[in-house]
Amino acid sequence: MASRSCQRWVHQEPFGLEALAMDQKGYRRGSFQSSTSDEDMLEIAGASLDFMADDDPPLDREMGGFSSYNGGGMNGTSTMMDFLEEPLPGVGTYEDFNTIDWVREKSRDRDRHREITSRSKESTWALIHSVSDAFSGWLLMLLIGLLAGSLAGLIDISAHWMTDLKEGVCLAGFWFNHEHCCWKSNTTFTDRDKCPEWESWSQLILGHGEGAFAYILNYFMYVIWALLFSLLAVLLVKGFAPYACGSGIPEIKTILSGFIIRGYLGKWTLIIKTITLVLAVSSGLSLGKEGPLVHVACCCGNILCHLFTKYRKNEAKRREVLSAAAAAGVSVAFGAPIGGVLFSLEEVSYYFPLKTLWRSFFAALVAAFTLRSINPFGNSRLVLFYVEFHMPWHLLELVPFILLGIFGGLWGAFFIRSNIAWCRRRKTTRLGKYPVLEVFVVTAITAILAFPNEYTRMSTSELISELFNDCGILDSSKLCEYVNDFNSTKGDDLPDRAAGPGVYTAMWQLALALIMKVFITIFTFGMKVPSGLFIPSMAVGAIAGRLLGVAVEQLAYYHHDWAIFSGWCSQGADCITPGLYAMVGAAACLGGVTRMTVSLVVIMFELTGGLEYIVPLMAAAMTSKWVADAIGREGIYDAHIRLNGYPFLEAKEEFSHKTLAMDVMRPRRNDPPLTVITQDSMTVEDVETIINETTYSGYPVVVSRESQRLVGFVLRRDLIISIENARKKQDGIVSTSVIYFTDHSPPLPPSSPSMLKLRSILDLSPFTVTDQTPMEIVVDIFRKLGLRQCLVTHNGKLLGIITKKDVLKHIAQLANQDPDSILFN
């Protein structure tokens, strides 16, 4: 069984990035003076991580045992100097691409809180400081909600305007989009989109908008604007913030699990992602802004953490803030505060205490309120495709709803496999070296195919809004061109009617749009521009759902005497709502791709404002998840985490194999012995030799080479900083000075060099397990305590070490995956 000692893991290795990520602002290789902040905190969606270089456990490969490290004698002064009585800057902090020590960070925060509480009784000022410290978390949530809501409103307004700019311009003011331009027009309701204030590019240039040449000119301008927007986006990302591409959710999941990626949540990433997200969405590419809005909100949270000391100096506390920021991001993306909190809990967060739940709810509430105050769409709604249905659904409709769930699961599994295969090809071939060319080609193909079809020409959010819409008397859309019988109309509710020619035209156009969206999204997601997957997935499902809904509606209209319809759908009744089918299909496809369940249903419920549709949404979401899980267990975000080799230990999967800790630990048989440091017999030179000739992030400290009894664990980074500072600031520290990790030292001749006492940087409670501990328990310990490493002992003697990487490689091997080429690519 695992020992009860509190672990403070350390042995996590640095990771190498390709040149793209190395150019990122704030990346410092080999700097030991970097601050603890993550201001400049893994795309790495496009860059490859080299996990193999420096991440092996501390094995002495080149020195053949401990003989080289027996120290330079026991000379020293009789006075023992503890150089680290005061904490040094940098000690206890983390390098880039390392995992944080959750146990140590939580312990630090408890100590800080106890100190503030005890001081609060001493003076009024200390009491005020205690109250402000307790209140700072809520103030931070308020600021995150305000900033995230404001940026979301800015992105919505800008993207709406730039999307319409591809088709024309407003004469009353070029800053108006099409809808706002026509608000003050005197045109009839049916001609509201043809107001004189708005002119297409052909009308502006040629003076008329009819004819083949006008169509070609509009077509040409549409493609040119799309290419301009996408090229500007990819060039900004490549030049200023490589981390701003992609959706960001896989990397945020990894960061929330404790990984450090400096720059990923920094100010440059926030600025460039906000600008390029507008450009990418406006270009007409098959992507959405909802996923990247989570990244934007987390950037806001990370940057605002610097205003508060307790979050700036504690990585674990900062990750609680980032969990709440992710909830605020989904809140403004969908106008769903409760769904945002559940999304953070279900999908992205690794550690989510009850306190974080409350604060996430508050941040999501403030963000949604801020966005509602901005009112980006002018309709008092937070999203473009908000809709309300009024007709109840019938039990027999669960059959088509479940069919939509099956379709969503199949589409999700197909998309994940195809997209991962394409992204792997991008990483392993020359294609990855030409991101600008790839974006140019995909944008050109998308724009050329999209313009002829009005359902692909419009923005994806507008398309979803159109598909969710429940046809009313005044609707002029092709989807609502039914054969009207006004004698049977009762109030605002229209009965099921025979489809007119406009509906049939819309059906085949939607079918073509479905085929295009299914395939073009595979190549779009993962390019070097901000790209979300929520909206394209919902569009695919909404199109399929609308097609099925109209089919069921027409079947009920022409065959209302069939047994399946006769009990509840009489002639002239309003039985089937095709928009509801579109909504259920959207939920099914989004669930198939992301494998969300509870949060997905709540988000869709908040979008529609109808409690009575929760059961259809639940049925579709669960069916979709079951079908997709039967084909492949991973959602799209987990698949991208594995593709990029991020050190993420999935908490949802069970470990069911019967291996032991001794089967996984290093060193193995025939490996060189474990590299260790003795507590009182090694000189500064000996320790520096170990540091220079190995690349490990930490070293076990033992009593002696012979006994191998464990004393503790020391971080490489802390050793380097401490020795460097001792050489500069402490007299008498030379290469032959003995390093002591003990409380006391024997009296030595006064002529000997000064000793260096480093007990204060020694972790005296490293987590240990015995060699006979089942790996099932070890994996559970790593997951639930967030360990980076644990030491393996036998009868109290140190045997080896198990790192997080060893656990991940072991799981990959048991799953018949190549741990080197797949897990740590």
Average residue-wise pLDDT: 81
Helix vs. strand class: mainly alpha
Q: Helix share of residues? A: 40-55%
Reported CATH architecture of the domain at 400-483 and 494-640: Orthogonal Bundle
Which sequence of strands runs across the widest sheet? 3-5-6
CATH superfamily membership of the domain at 400-483 and 494-640: Clc chloride channel
Shape, principal axes of CA atoms = elongated
Give the terminus-to-terminus CA distance.
33 Å
- Under CATH at level 1, the class of the domain at 400-483 and 494-640 stands as Mainly Alpha
Portion in beta strands: 5-15%
The main β sheet shows up as:
3 strands, mixed
| Rg (C-alpha, Å) | 31 Å
Number of helices: 30
Low-confidence stretches: 1-84, 488-492, 821-825
Could you tell me the CATH topology label of the domain at 400-483 and 494-640.
Answer: Clc chloride channel
Number of strands: 11
GO molecular function, one term: voltage-gated chloride channel activity
Subunit structure: Interacts with NEDD4 and NEDD4L.
Protein name: Chloride channel protein
Subcellular location: Cell membrane; Endosome membrane; Golgi apparatus membrane; Membrane
List the helices and strands and how they pair.
Blueprint: H1 19-22, H2 102-119, H3 124-165, E1 168-170, H4 178-181, E2 198-200, H5 201-206, H6 212-240, H7 249-256, H8 267-282, H9 290-304, H10 309-312, H11 315-334, H12 337-348, H13 354-374, H14 398-428, H15 435-450, H16 454-457, H17 460-468, H18 501-524, H19 534-558, H20 563-566, H21 578-594, H22 598-608, H23 614-631, H24 636-643, H25 661-664, E3 677-678, E4 682-683, H26 684-693, E5 698-702, E6 710-715, H27 716-729, E7 738-740, E8 756-757, E9 768-770, H28 775-785, E10 789-794, E11 797-803, H29 804-814, H30 819-823
Parallel strand pairs: 3-5, 7-8, 9-10
Antiparallel strand pairs: 1-2, 4-7, 5-6, 10-11
Helix pairs in contact: 3-8, 3-9, 3-11, 3-13, 6-8, 6-15, 7-24, 8-9, 9-11, 11-12, 11-13, 12-13, 12-22, 14-18, 14-19, 14-21, 14-23, 14-24, 15-18, 17-19, 18-19, 19-21, 21-23, 22-23
